[in-house]
Write a structure and sequence with these properties.
CATH superfamily of the largest domain: Response regulator
Number of strands: 12
Helix content: 25-40%
Shape: globular
Strand content: 15-25%
CATH architecture of the largest domain: 3-Layer(aba) Sandwich
Largest sheet: 6 strands, parallel
Low-confidence stretches: none
CATH topology of the largest domain: Rossmann fold
Oligomer: single chain
Strand order of the largest sheet: 2-1-3-4-5-6
Distance between the termini: 31 Å
Number of domains: 2
Structural class: alpha/beta
Number of helices: 12
Mean pLDDT: 90
C-alpha cells in the first residue's frame, strides 16, 4: 500500500454521497494530513443549479468562498492538491495555490463525462496528473483512465448470506430515462414472478417538480414513486444483503461505470446493467453480469437461478478504494485498465 505518512494534501471535491469523506478518511489512515473542502460554496438545489447553468451568475459568492479558503490555508505548504470534478472552482484559486506551493503536485479526477460538463475542460491545463472514469474522455483529452471504486463496507456481503427477500433491487437518483427503463424492468420482473424493489431518489420536491415540467423523460414519472430521503451506505448495504441482484441504469451518454457497479460486485451480488462497456473490464463475467439494451429490454429468468461466481482476489483489489488511492497518488494503472479493451 502507498505510504503517505507526513504528506500534506489539500483536497477539494464535489459532495457525492459522502464518498469524498471516505477518501479523506482513508488518506488520513495512510498517514496524510488532509484539509478537505467542498468545492461548491453551497449544496442547495439553487446553488447547484446556477453553478451548472452558468457559474458567472454566482461568481461573487464563489469568489468569496474561495478567498475564505485561501485565508484559512494561508502559510500552509502542501505536497498534493487533489480536485474531484471542480464545477465551481475559479481559475484564480488554482493559480494562487500553485504559486504558493510551487513544488506541489496538482491532481484531477472526474467521474462524469466531459461532454456533460464541457466547462471543466479549460482547467485541465493546470494539473500535473489528470484522471477520468470515462475511457472515451481519456482518449480524446489525453487523460489517465481510472474507474471508480467500492468502500470496504460493501466487500463480500455474501460471506454470511441471508435468505433473499428480493430477486432484483434498484436504488438510484431520478434522472434521464432511469424511470422509463426501470419501470420496464419492473414489468418484466412481474411477468416472470420475480420479487423486485425500486427506490428512486430526488434531491428536492420543488426542484423535481420543476424538472418534471421540462424534462421529457421525467414527465412520465409517477411522483408517488420517488423518495426525497437519501439512503446512507448502511441502508443500501442492508438492501444488498436481501437481494439476489441489483439493477444499474447508467446515463444514456455515459460509458464510464457507476460507483454502484463496483459496490454490487464487491458485495457478491449479481449485476444487471444497461452499460455494455462493462464487457471491456477485467471483472466482466456473464454469469455475474447481465447486460441489457435500454431500447429493447430482455431479461433471461435463468440468470437468477445460479449463484454469484466468486471474483479473483487480485481483480477485486484493483476495484477497491485502496487501489484507487494508489493510482491517484502513486503509479497510474492505464496499462492494467486499458489492457481489457480488446474484449469489446
Amino acid at each position: 500500500m502507498i505510504n503517505l505518512h507526513g504528506k500534506k494534501i489539500l483536497f477539494l471535491s464535489v459532495s457525492f454521497f459522502n464518498y469524498e469523506k471516505a477518501i479523506a478518511k482513508r488518506l488520513s489512515e495512510l498517514g496524510a494530513e488532509v484539509d478537505l473542502y467542498d468545492e461548491r460554496p453551497s449544496n442547495s438545489n439553487f446553488s447547484k443549479g446556477i453553478i451548472r447553468l452558468n457559474k458567472r451568475f454566482y461568481h461573487l459568492k464563489i469568489n468569496e468562498y474561495y478567498n475564505r479558503i485561501l485565508n484559512e490555508i494561508q502559510g500552509k505548504k502542501y505536497d498534493f492538491f487533489f480536485l474531484i470534478k471542480g464545477e465551481a472552482i475559479p481559475t484564480f484559486f488554482l493559480e494562487k495555490i500553485k504559486q504558493d506551493n510551487p513544488e506541489m503536485e496538482m491532481i484531477y479526477y472526474n467521474f462524469d463525462p466531459l461532454k456533460e460538463y464541457p466547462n471543466l475542460i479549460a482547467h485541465l491545463k493546470y494539473f500535473d496528473k489528470k484522471f477520468t472514469f470515462e475511457y472515451n474522455d481519456a482518449v480524446q483529452f489525453n487523460l489517465k483512465f481510472r474507474p471508480l471504486f467500492y468502500l470496504d463496507e460493501y466487500e463480500n456481503l455474501n460471506q454470511n448470506p441471508e435468505p433473499s427477500e428480493y430477486d432484483l433491487v434498484f436504488i438510484g437518483s431520478a434522472h434521464t430515462d432511469r424511470y422509463i427503463v426501470g419501470e420496464q424492468v419492473r414489468a418484466i420482473a412481474d411477468r416472470f414472478h420475480l420479487r423486485s424493489y425500486f427506490y428512486y431518489y430526488a434531491m428536492g420536491r420543488i426542484a423535481f417538480r420543476l424538472k418534471k415540467m421540462i424534462d421529457k423523460n421525467l414527465k412520465q414519472f409517477d411522483i408517488t414513486k420517488v423518495s426525497f430521503n437519501k439512503l446512507n451506505h448502511q441502508q443500501i448495504i442492508d438492501f444488498y444483503k436481501k437481494t439476489k441482484s441489483v439493477l444499474d441504469i447508467n446515463k444514456p451518454f455515459q460509458n464510464g461505470l457507476t460507483i454502484r457497479t463496483f459496490e454490487v460486485l464487491a458485495s457478491g451480488k449479481k449485476l444487471i446493467t444497461t452499460n455494455s462497456d462493462i464487457k471491456n473490464y477485467p471483472f466482466y463475467n456473464p454469469d455475474n453480469i447481465l447486460v441489457i439494451d435500454r431500447e429493447n429490454i430482455q431479461i433471461d429468468p435463468e440468470f437468477f437461478k445460479t449463484d454469484f461466481k466468486e471474483m479473483d482476489t487480485d481483480i477485486l483489489y484493483k476495484m477497491s478504494l485502496n487501489s484507487f488511492i494508489e493510482c491517484i497518488f502513486g503509479d497510474s494503472q492505464d496499462v492494467y485498465w486499458n489492457g481489457f479493451r480488446s474484449k469489446g
